[in-house]
Amino acid sequence: MSDSARAFVPGHVTGFFSAHPDDDPTKAGSRGGGLAIGDGVTVELEPGEGLELNGEAAAIEAVDRVLDALRATARVVVETDLPLGAGFGVSGAAALGTALTTNAVFGRGLSENELVTIAHGAEVQAGTGLGDVVAQARGGVPIRLEPGAPAHGAMDGIPQRRPLEYRSFGELPTEEIIAGDTDELTAAGDRALSALVAEPTLETFMESSRRFAREAGLLTPRVAEVVRDVSEAGGEASMAMLGETVFALGSGLSDAGYDAEQCSLSLAGAHVL
Amino acid sequence: MSDSARAFVPGHVTGFFSAHPDDDPTKAGSRGGGLAIGDGVTVELEPGEGLELNGEAAAIEAVDRVLDALRATARVVVETDLPLGAGFGVSGAAALGTALTTNAVFGRGLSENELVTIAHGAEVQAGTGLGDVVAQARGGVPIRLEPGAPAHGAMDGIPQRRPLEYRSFGELPTEEIIAGDTDELTAAGDRALSALVAEPTLETFMESSRRFAREAGLLTPRVAEVVRDVSEAGGEASMAMLGETVFALGSGLSDAGYDAEQCSLSLAGAHVL
After folding, report:
1. Distance from B106 to chain A by nearest Cα, in Å?
2. Whether residue B237 has pLDDT greater than 80
3. Which residues form the GHMP kinase N-terminal domain (chains A, B) (predicted)?
4. Which residue numbers in chain A have pLDDT < 70?
5. ipTM of the complex
6. What fold, for A1-273?
């Protein structure tokens, strides 16, 4: 137990996914592939009340659900340079960071799998994500083979490292999309996963992600144009699920003339600081 | 594919374990708890022949087995500041680093789980380790809940971070011990794991490790004396399995008057550089 604790949780960009609802939130989730990135979220927590996001009072349902599950009353300060609602898993990161820091401050004595399970369930029940939390807990280039929290899910990873770039043009409503009809999306996601499992490389990940974005009907005109520009400049880009955001390997976006944020993969998963 | 590749694999100190032999080397392994540390092993690999360990020609059977499994003929350069044969998992690290770099150089297109499986199987068949490889692939403070490579094993982790110290006084013969009668050792390891699962904290890990070393009859007089000295100075220490090595939380060894190496936990698992 300590007076306060801090945690870092990597951002997570999903390239493709399939949705797998279940009445049990620890079994619900998604299959898919993504990138855990070094631009992430820090959570600082101490006994008290209220949530602050980048210096302003805010509400994040998944965070409230984590605090309820851990029976803690806490002041939670969330800080991130990542764009919000743009496909970087900020809500999942806030939930996971809250679970890790609550465990430390209130001496709950839970394991990493137990804390990930609580944060994953909270995010699923809040309707704000299906697979970011387990990927953010792992780090690297996570492949979600089976949906759900650690006791039910299964993961693998791509053993490559590359610098990355991203550029966000705005938000997309995750909750509406994953609460709607996801049959077509899930069929496209399953095809993308099969291709990636057959050849788990970053190049196949990017290609599968582009095909998924097209087949699932999620590409916006602006994202489609930027992805095309990066391809024409010889690079590899795709769309972050779910945001109006393009990510690219190496300097793909800069090479195509776009202002872009540069970042690295986060080899480490979420952790207390 | 590239001309050469490098990988970093963290060292791994096992505090307690139980041995679980199986005819299938991907199912064989150990349960237990340990620490992945930032002092580790780098492997550089290119097409060619021969293995070099810290600048001298050497033979590591687990490395040869990995190269055989991946049908590669390579020159492997292994470098580490860790003491050899002293409980830091150097052979497992060399095997895992060889798997990661062979995959990169020879374009084998395998996933992280597949490469970990090959390295784990090679280490088990060489008789030089039972659980270091899966722990080194994960990073952090790994708890091995079920033995074996990723398809069969199960892991959790302790969500705490502390600086560490270690001091090695010499080697112990891992192969003889794990090939001998391990019934008593495994009973003690199972009790230690139950205690840690009930309360997955670093303090419980250290206490369970000390009890295991005593109950399994592995404590040498010198290690017992150092662990006692650290306790009397108010610290927490135990014995690395399997080496005549003492590790401690924080500055436990220095506080007791011993010269010690300082290191951090490795939050990242093994990875190509």
Report:
1. 13
2. yes
3. 61-140
4. 1, 174, 178
5. 0.95
6. Ribosomal Protein S5; domain 2 (3.30.230)
